[in-house]
């Protein structure tokens, strides 16, 4: 186990984590997907985390000593709904740990959507055994951005 893995703790989110988790999402989305138009304002994203994701979904955060919340994972049924890391915390194994946790929580399988332009996400999920099963033109998502559905089955 690396020093980062020892200092980062994955835990269920509580109400007081909503703002920090939304901040991770906002910074990560801006860094990874600068050309994807978000249909919701920063304040609407924060409200969504506060009133929907944290209280109503299975939401997990990665907390780092001295840095606070640096990652967020949201599960809804068999859907891996959100997995975002603060930009400076990518490449440290936290995403791998989140996927392992998601597979443990959903041993029957998982599915997720990611944008077609997000090649790093494609590589990440494929490395973790997910397979692309559907591509769309984006007409069914809020961003109107072409996307890809990935599925993992044990």
Provide key terms for this protein:
single chain, 154 residues, alpha+beta, 4-stranded antiparallel beta sheet, 5 helices, 7 strands, 36% helix, globular
Explain the overall architecture:
The protein has 154 residues and is an alpha+beta fold. It is built from five helices and seven strands, in the order αβααβββαβαββ. Helix 2 (18-32) packs across helix 3. 29% of the residues are buried.
Can you lay out the helices and strands and say which pair or pack?
Blueprint lengths: L2 H5 E5 L5 H15 L9 H15 L1 E7 L3 E9 L2 E7 L8 H12 L4 E6 L3 H9 L3 E6 L10 E6 L2
Antiparallel strand pairs: 1-2, 2-3, 3-4, 5-7, 6-7
Helix pairs in contact: 2-3
Helix content: 25-40%
Low-confidence stretches: none
Question: Helical stretch count?
Answer: 5
User: Oligomer, anyone?
Assistant: single chain
Strand content: 25-35%
**What is the mean predicted local confidence, pLDDT?**
95
DSSP summary, beta strand count: 7
The first-to-last residue Cα distance is: 25 Å
Largest sheet: 4 strands, antiparallel
How large, in whole angstroms, is the Cα Rg? 15 Å
**How are helices and strands ordered from N to C?**
HEHHEEEHEHEE
What spatial order of strands do you see in the largest sheet?
1-2-3-4
Shape: globular
Question: What class do helices, strands and sheet pairing give?
Answer: alpha+beta
Q: Brief overview, please?
A:
With 154 residues, the chain is α+β, with helices and mostly antiparallel strands.
